[in-house]
Amino acid sequence: MMRVEVSVLVVSWNTRTETQHCLDSLRATTDVVRYEVIVVDNGSLDGSAEMLAARDDVLLIRNAENRGFAAAVNQANARARGELVLLLNSDVRMRPGALAVLVRFLRDRPEAAGVAPLYLNPDGTIQQHYMRLPTFTSALALATGLRKMPGFRRAMRRYLMAEEDFTAPRQVEQPSASCLLLRRGVLNAHQVLDERLPIYFNDVLMARELALRGHHLWMTPDAAVTHTLGASTRLLGPAARSRHHLGGLVRYLQLTQPRWRVAVFRGVSFCDRVARRLLRVRGHLALRELGAALRGDVGPLPDGDQRDWVIMFSGVNWSVGCQRQHALARELASDRRVLFVDPPRRRPRWRFMARPVAPSVWQATSPSVLPFGRQLPLANRVNRRVASGIIRRWLDQRPADRVLWIDEDLAVRAVGRLGESAVVYDVADLDWTFTRPWNRRHLQRAARAALRVADLVVASSPALPERLPGTRRSPVVVANGCDPALFTVQGSVADWVARLPAPRLGYVGAVDTRALDGELLAAVARRRPEWTFVVVGASTRAARTALAGFPNIYLHDQIRLEEVPSVLRGCDVCLLPYRVGELIDYVQPKKLYEYLALGKPVVATPLPALTGLEAGLIHLAADAETFTTAIDQALHDEPCPSRLLARRAVAVANSWPVRGETLRKLLADLAEDGLR
């Protein structure tokens, strides 16, 4: 086996282009040094690992997640065979001959434990990337505004080696580890960098330990590299980067300073950050993150996912699982990340929780510090402000562009508090129609506010736009859809449905008095006692009363969405007996396309959203007599495969994936317009 002089250790994290240029520059730097390249990819999501796997000049170690810079360096070092190791950042480009100069420097100076090159900015100017080891005073200056005071200013300048001469080789207490050639013999055999410091200050601690053992680090201007600086760490985002840096500094002090000094540092830093907050200075950490950082808690290591966010304030809980909001969240998650925020609970709740519930979808339950936010404007205002602050801090740990999506009117109080670039108002329903008359004004005011601030207004039904007051932009109809892959023509039939007498007429949905016309259904059942009506869904007492006493009406409790197709396959005709001319006759029931996906004939009342559908697609009837006649006609229509396929084709054309494609195009146009 060929003797290796230098093992080059590179950590890759979502810097595909920079890593590629780095490795290409290394290959071109020398042909006289025998070296190997070991790259650890820390769960990159930008194709870095795939690019590295295709190269024949690297040994790739592929982590499934981001394990941190220190841990990745240690992984690479465990596989190294060289007498020397080069710590090399992916945003460094080696200039011709640089590696050979560094190797020769250590050969010529046996007293040197390691050597760094001269760093240049991409424009060719010198990048001062050498420091002394931090003292307690310089640490305070680094972390707080004390750096502006004379004594601390001097300590800061000394720490940064400001205006010192680097035109000749010299010892440096702490050269940057962006490109640092070290003798393996001076390093800890098991751990090059301390993994308690995952991102920042691990190289500082290593330099300090080498100095304590009498080893010296050098720099030489005879070897030059170009350093773009921070290619990976900029992906952290300002808040996460600030927490990692301050938390890393606290951990370094905990490992190197007496406890009383750490306590003083924490106290001064806390006062400094609070003062910044009061003075509205940009860049301060929220109090919760500040407290964690001052304890030395740097927070979770980010995953590097840079896709944009859709923050969806929903009017229904994620656990419901089968509404428009859930389908759209899954569709939007195909190229974005979605934070699905459950509506506030009626009772106070202090805990915030966010957890992944589907690919690229997180469910959030936010705190409600005051009860009855849906009824009391002040309580809603307070709850939304508190929740928005917590959600924004969570998002700041996962930086990317954000679109605020509202389908719950009262969530309009969150607008402007989440750092969003645009606001989408999805008018899934007119929320105020779902509450008692005394509370409608509160919700109507919120709806008008949402229409005023929204950059895009989406309506779930073609009957909705004419019911909305003036908006900044004309509403775009993105109607409800269906899942044709679930609602298939072929499949099982629920046993309990198959045992019921035929013909069977099916309805699945909310069984209440707001939408379902129970009196109409009862009148038809009275006219045709030989028909069996299968009514499935969560029901109210008033609705059950209207349908009670009919032996041919079979009421069944709500079932899971996955069970619905097997129930409807056992029905001969599917029904949409909605009330017309009342508060919520604007709806376009998503059940329509689910019925059609199963190939079933549909009889419905003439809701405004249904009257414009293709002629012959469904039967429309307004009263008991005509509704009965329409069902009778649907039952006696001669079965026709082409008619079944036509219904199925309409459902496929109105599927959730089709709706998702429309929404993705709308959001892309919104981003291109740069509205906010």
Automatic annotation (TrEMBL):
GO terms for molecular function: glycosyltransferase activity. PANTHER family: RHAMNOSYLTRANSFERASE WBBL (PTHR43179:SF7). Residues 7-160 form the Glycosyltransferase 2-like domain. It is an enzyme of class 2 (transferase). Keywords: Glycosyltransferase, Transferase. Its EC number is 2.4.-.-. Pfam families: Glyco_trans_1_4, Glycos_transf_2. This is Glycosyltransferase. It comes from the Bacteria.
